[in-house]
Amino acid sequence: MYRDPVESLEPLHHRQAAIRTLRVGMIGIGTVGSGTFRVLARNRADIAARAGRSIELVMVAARNLERAAGIVGDSVALTADAMHVATHPDVDVVVEVAGGTGPARDWVLAAIAHGKHVVTANKALLAVHGAEIFAAAREKGVIVAYEGAVAVSIPIIKALREGLAANRIEWVAGIINGTTNFILSKMRDEGLDFAAALEQAQALGYAEADPSFDIEGVDAAHKLTLLAANAFGMPLRFADAQVEGITALQGVDVACAEQLGYRIKLLGVARRQAAGVELRVQPVLVPAAHLMAQVNGSMNAVMVKSDAAGLTMYYGAGAGSEQTASAVIADLVDVARLDGVHAAQHVPHLGVHAHATNALAVLPRAAVHTSHYLRVPVHALDQIQAIAAGLAERKVPVRQVALAAERPGVGPQVLVLTGPVEQGALDLAVHALQARAEVAGPVTTLRVESLEG
User: Fold this and answer.
1) Which candidate in 186, 223, 265, 305 is catalytic?
2) Is 223 one of the catalytic residues?
3) Fold for domain 5-152+325-345?
């Protein structure tokens, strides 16, 4: 039977008007928390229209209440007790943006136990305690959303869980730490050594006073753990990830990579293999013409290879107050839309395979199969063929051999690009190479990633 469009919309209008506001309690009002408050207030009408209901910040827990009051004014209840927010009956969803893995775990688990949804940008918390947190969320039927924990302004979790839902994901690779990417960009563009580039990053606010988590690759590994879990439906395996930072990277290798037509990036790689999943963070050589090599400064990028969509790439800011707030509020919109839907349909959640204990083992370092870059110090320029022969004796495929361009204070260097070879076999070949009379010092090795389909 035909119904007048205006008449048919009238009941819907009344139903929407009756939907209750989503009440948000926030733990932490620092960089991310303050950005979340500003964006929620500024774009309130647009956010409500997209969510289908209003989203209102009703309570904030902060260590410095005077500072918090200066940010949120008198429209939001303030408390110094984070657990009060986590358990308050007038809070529907808890946004945890305080950071850390100790008290934050207790707050999140308390919120879940009280039937509250959780949104967090805390990648360390989820990488370390995610299995426990997601199990509790499944049991209570609530949402745990974490888009802001992975690549800040890039909606990569939604891309994996929604946009690429039809696909079998083959691999995910990303520049997912803005601090290290800024440092590497400075080392290449200005010829700085690592220490000088780090000092500049700290002076400009791109690096913390203690930058260890960033420069040692730990932050990127936390994020990669979440990406792999979403891509492959595997458990969170942060403890099994191979993690190497950039603290030992030398300026000479940045220059030599350029000479060979490559750029060095700190890359997180999760790749599905027949025997398991590669889960690793390390500085690698990427072809200079590749899109990933053009990601400079503090920007982030993630590339996904899937069977139906093929190669897709996602690019955006890797840090920032309102940039992270954008992801946090996107998760709040998901909560507003999905509240009351069965827990298995909560898109930001890891899904039904996240609790599996026997799925997709993480490959050990020795079993990872890639091409490699070697820089071999030698006593004389005419020893280049001896180095190539030494590698061939160990069945390492040699793709290219060259002499490094002369640099002040650096002796003769032979540069080698290998074909694909298992890490264990390469380690044995390098050990044998190191013992040869032609070799004048430690051999440097880095992996090479083509990032091809």
Assistant:
1) 223
2) yes
3) Rossmann fold (3.40.50)
